[in-house]
TrEMBL record:
Name assigned to this protein: 6-bladed beta-propeller
Keyword field: Glycoprotein, Repeat, Signal
PANTHER family: BLL1368 PROTEIN, PEPTIDYL-GLYCINE ALPHA-AMIDATING MONOOXYGENASE
NHL repeat spans: 165-207, 278-309
Pfam families: DUF5128, NHL
Keyword Signal annotated: yes
């Protein structure tokens, strides 16, 4: 069954695929924080339950689950094709203060913990990584979105290179750098940081030099997904925002400007939720057909598939 989804000022036609991704008995979601698709359009939902990674095929059939070690700490979830041509997950665990690289089956290949920076971190000033991304050369960037608001740069083997950021609103400073990704749409790769509590994106060079702000049409941006020339951004304040190659607004998907204002948000009564409106988008991805998957920050999870009808 399909229900039309109003997509604002865009010609993009998407429809809600109701009932997609049913869970088998004995498996349930915690907070759904991330979602990725692999090269075969399999869908991986990252959540805070004991089955932290739940795998579906593109039709929504349950395939597998793994990741018990991420229970309670599952947060950043990034799929990257490395220089060896293989796809890997790069994951941040807020509970264990770790970045973990795994295979698509969950085999751990690399762990990166708190950087040895006593001027920034101690027993009171915690390190809480929220997201991770990988540059074309394999370098790893980790955003400390819930701790001291820095970005930390490592090589592909996890060797520390540099850090930048810190609390503030001036260029180069950050207020809750919640998400991080690599923009490959221009002549040179850039780092996009979801500077969430500043309600903006901040763009850096791969060496951490501030380049510019994107501060229009955003409302608590959480993370990013680049698809074609567009960028899909889950705005925690109840919508998904799409920007074009010039970072101009294409449309807002499923906007509900009342949801985040409700008492008890994000864990609202189930009677409040509507299939064609979002409450607290936290992660988004797009498959090869242009279908969009959105996961929301809700205690027992919420996953929506928007099918591309073009």
């Amino acid at each position: 069954m399909y229900e039309s989804l109003v997509v604002g000022n865009s010609s993009l036609n998407l429809e809600v695929e109701s009932g997609w991704g049913l869970l088998p008995e004995g498996i349930s979601y915690g907070y759904t924080h991330g979602v990725c698709v692999d090269s075969n359009d399999n869908v991986y939902v990252f959540n805070t339950s004991k089955d932290a990674v739940i795998v579906f095929d593109h039709e929504g059939n349950f395939v597998d689950s793994w990741g018990e070690e991420f229970e309670g700490g599952a947060h950043g979830f990034y799929l990257h094709k490395d220089v060896d041509g293989q796809e890997y997950f790069y994951i941040t665990d807020t509970a264990r203060a770790l970045m973990v690289k795994t295979t698509l089956k969950g085999e751990v290949l690399l762990e990166v913990g708190e950087p040895n920076l006593p001027d920034i971190y101690d027993e009171e000033r915690r390190y809480i990584p929220t997201d991770v991304c990988v540059a074309p050369n394999g370098d790893i960037y980790i955003s400390d979105g819930y701790g001291q608001y820095y970005v930390h740069h490592y090589d592909a083997k996890g060797n520390y290179i540099r850090s930048w950021g810190g609390r503030g609103s001036e260029p180069g400073k950050l207020l809750e750098p919640h998400g991080i990704s690599i923009n490959l749409r221009g002549s040179d790769p850039e780092i996009y940081v979801a500077d969430r509590r500043n309600h903006r994106i901040q763009v850096f060079s791969l060496d951490g030099e501030h380049k510019r702000f994107i501060d229009k049409d955003l409302d608590l941006p959480c993370s990013f997904y680049f698809f074609g020339k567009d960028i899909y951004i889950p705005d925690l304040n109840s919508r998904v925002t799409i920007l074009d190659e010039h970072d101009r607004l294409v449309c807002h998907l499923g906007e509900d400007q009342q949801a985040y204002k409700q008492k008890g948000w994000p864990n609202l009564p189930k009677t409040y939720f509507r299939t064609n409106r979002f409450s607290s988008p936290h992660g988004v991805c797009v498959n090869s057909h242009g279908d969009v998957y959105v996961v929301e920050w809700i205690s027992d999870g919420r996953v929506t598939k928007l099918s591309n009808t073009r």
